[in-house]
Amino acid sequence: MQVEPMIREGRLVALAPERDLMIDLYWPHWEQEPEPLATISALVMNAARRSLVQSVPTAAQAG
User: Which of 7-11, 36-40, 46-50, 51-55 bottoms out in mean pLDDT, i.e. has the lowest?
Assistant: First the structure.
């Protein structure tokens, strides 16, 4: 975990180290963005899909 050194140094405190915290993350972008930004957005979203836990929509969320 990236924060491990900061926890060891006492700069951060793990509030609930035995529990995972699931939160929605959003990557803001524009409908029509310049090509370099579109490429960066695609790279970030693809990396997130590979690395982060993907939530399964509940019946209420699915609509």
Answer: 51-55
Residue 59 lies in a domain: no
At 8-44, the pLDDT tens digits run: 999 988 888 888 878 887 878 778 889 999 999 999 9
Does residue 9 fall inside a structural domain?
yes
In a domain, 61, yes or no: no
| 22 within 8 A of 55, measured Cβ to Cβ | yes
Nearby residues of 30 by Cβ (< 8 Å), 6 or more positions away: 37
Total tally of structural domains belonging to the chain:
1
Give me the domain span that covers residue 13.
3-51
Rounded Cα gap, residues 41 and 33, in angstroms: 10
